[in-house]
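A note on notation is needed here, since sequence and fold are reported together in a single record. The reader may check this reading against the record printed directly beneath this paragraph.
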Amino acid sequence: MRYLLDSHTWLWWLSADPRLGAGAARILADPQAELHLSAATGWELTIKISVGKLVLHYSLDEVLREQRLRHHILWLDITSEHCRALAPLPFHHRDPFDRLLIAQALREGMAILSADLQFDAYSVTRIWD
């Protein structure tokens, strides 16, 4: 199965945060799981750091590169197909980054690892607990 990591999932996994859901943790520990990180996540985290909403004790560039390699996480670029999949989505969720993750997951046939219950309003598989 292919999985798309939400921003908080990835950060909580890297920091061994106890808020990481048990179901998500099992998948993240499975060497057979195909894990993906969206370019939207890199974009979101960069913006949050630049406006002071997120403070990391390490370089985001470094961790994006090194941790993705260490954990064999594939990078998912944003394509025109993802943008087209985004257009018809109802506005159950207003966060533009999360909406893009939903569109990508639907278009790519991926489940999303996220604690965000608002994802459940869409026909995407969300795994957490």
